[in-house]
Amino acid sequence: MADHTEVDSVSGTATTGHAWDGIKELNTPLPRWWVITFYITIVWAIGYWIVYPAWPTITSNTTGLFGYSSRADVAVELANLEKIRGAKMAALATASLADIEKDPAMLALARAKGKTVFGDNCAACHGTGAAGAKGFPNLNDDDWLWGGSLEQIQQTLLYGVRSGHPKTREGQMLAFGKDGVLKPAEIITVANYVRELAGLPTRQGYDAKAGAKIFAENCAACHGDNAKGNPEVGAPNLTDKIWLYGSDEATLIETITNGRAGVMPAWEGRLDPTTIKAMAVYVHSLGGGK
Amino acid sequence: MNLTVKPDDLKPQEAQPQVLQPVDDYGPLYAPTKKVYPQSVSGTFRRIKWGLMGFCLGVYYFLPFVRWNRGLGAPDQAVLIDFPNHRFYFFFIELWPQEVYYFTGLLIIAAIGLFLMNAIGGRIWCGYLCPQTVWTDLFYAVERLIEGDRRERMKKDASSDPMKLERISELVLKHSIWLMIAWWTGGAWVLYFSDAPTLVKDLVTFQGPPLAYIWIAILTATTYTLAGFMREQVCVYMCPWPRIQAALTDEWALNVTYRYDRGENRMSVKKAAELRALGQPAGDCIDCKQCVAVCPTGIDIRDGSQMDCIQCGLCIDACDTVMTKIGRPTRLIGYDNDINIHRRQEGKPPVYKLVRARTVAYAAIIAVVGGAMVYKLATRSLLDVNVLHDRNPIAIKLSDGSIRNAYTVRVLNKHGFDRVIAIDIEGPVNSTVHVVGADSVTPDRPMIVIGRDQTEELRLLVTAPEESNPEKSIPVKFHITDIGLGVVASATDNFVSP
Prior knowledge:
The complex is a heterodimer of chains A (290) and B (498).
Chain A: E1 15-20, E2 23-26, H1 32-51, H2 70-94, H3 97-102, H4 104-121, H5 123-126, H6 150-159, H7 184-197, H8 208-218, H9 220-223, H10 249-258, H11 273-285
Antiparallel strand pairs in A: 1-2
Helix pairs in contact in A: 4-11, 6-11, 7-8, 7-10
Chain B: H1 7-10, H2 44-62, E1 79-82, E2 87-90, E3 93-95, H3 101-121, H4 124-129, H5 131-147, H6 150-158, H7 165-191, H8 196-204, H9 210-230, H10 232-238, H11 241-248, E4 255-258, H12 260-263, H13 269-277, H14 290-294, H15 314-325, E5 333-336, H16 338-345, H17 357-379, E6 383-389, E7 396-397, E8 403-413, E9 419-426, E10 432-435, E11 447-450, E12 454-464, E13 474-482, E14 488-495
Antiparallel strand pairs in B: 1-2, 2-3, 4-5, 6-8, 7-8, 8-12, 9-11, 9-13, 10-12, 13-14
Helix pairs in contact in B: 2-5, 3-17, 5-7, 5-9, 7-9
């Protein structure tokens, strides 16, 4: 070992005895309090390993003496939250849909809950603001295929449309062209007739009388003689300004030729009844509810 | 001194080997703290300090118990920071969170107020009003009462004899009283955040909220440490204000100053009398060091203006006492500045310039900010409305071709009673407004009850018929009218087409 007693004349500090190109390294040890703190942290870390989950094992990890897990913490917090909400949620579960909408506090709660659940479950098709898209109805407007009252919305939510649920809403737009019921020329004619009903411009020289006849024989059964639709079978009103798939001639011909059968899943069993109630109130309160 | 250059010095000298000598006149990086033992003193400034201490502590401790009737259901505490309900009460003023900018105004006034004090009379804040000074002064008073004055305390601390029961009981008593004062300090603090009498009852029956106990503990610890042990160290090392102060001061500001024009040269009373008898000038300072003995930061004011000086004025009292005893004029140390010292040295009368650009500007800023705040407070509306347009979807086409926009409208009722409001809109021609969930008896003009001292969030649907659909977005105004008082609050947003 080098001589440790050598003292640097300038600083008065002992050197380590190591020299590089004539420069000697001073021996400046770490402060004692620092070293002690450092050892304490080591001891602390060992204690931490023992009482808290720390080391990975092949399939799991050491659980620690305290049995702590962040997942259990979340479970406790969620349980507490349910406890806090308990009374209000119970009130929501028993109140009628109309009563919920009349009570400002319950309406606020239902809207808040409905909005969250809507974002998780419905927004994929209907959009985050429920504005819909082609083939997926806008839930903000006042045009409802299956009815826009609170009860009707709740039923659609519970059982869906063409969802396969035993109580599902059933009804479809037939494929008049593909099934050979109507010839292509007839389809063009009736498509123009429907545009006329809706107040849209029609192809020059189309036969309105023939269109009316085709409509009465094939379409009126569901859409009604006046083409105002029928919420019992989900037949849309053809005289208004709202079109789920589009109102141009080509789209209408496509619809009549191939039919339409959009699907709304049934939420019964997937969401609890209170949540579905809140959802119905939320959708109804978007502004289009009847 | 005459410098003479010898011819030898100009000759080129032989190159000397350069030897680096160790520099040993650097002071230590960490100077050990010298404990300060301020001596008791009496006089004008001591009386002012006692008075201000009593006033400040009195306000601090008793303000939470002052009551102020605000009507049924509202808290009756004059000064209350109500965090759970997001309200701040100050006598007749009630502030909501969105009015927190008033505090910005208060902070501006406080800062400029400090600047103004500084421009007029130096560190008035530090010397008389700062909590650190007030509490330290109180702690010193307790210490002096129990352990005796400066000399006794120094002797007791320096004694290496094993402690006797008397000394131990003295120390126990001192620290107990200190802790009690510190505990009251924290105790009073929490009273500003909850109903004081109720909280006091809860605290003594151990039913207070844990947060209250934690805050009392924290403030007890800080008061005990800062006023009992750190004392002047806080002012000298921790506080940024002395540094800022040094940058703010000017040559006209009055500071606690040793008038060296009168004091120097220092000499004994006897020698001074002899010199004066001979008609020769003699300094008034007899170097009795009383000014140093009473100083709470342990400095010598005769060294001139310095950062450690909090300008409490106690040295003025100490010096005045001595000057009176030896029959010389008082105020050898006093509020003064260098300009006047020089003027006196030149035989001119002193000048005091209170009105100067700096003080006028500070006073003007205070007046403007204060005036603006008072005006805003006096004219603020107790009914307010905020409107937020739905972002998604921004507009809805209805089956008859009309267009509907939805808005989230928040109505604020800052009055202590329920109010009925009516909603009117000014937007596209023939447009109608509907409030979701409200079955109003007046469908064309929805009316809603807004509870006292709260906000109500409403969902408003504005519908414009097809023929008046705007091509692009046009402004729509929402007027919220208090039916009872006739007060109107308005907000503007846009009506857009899809």
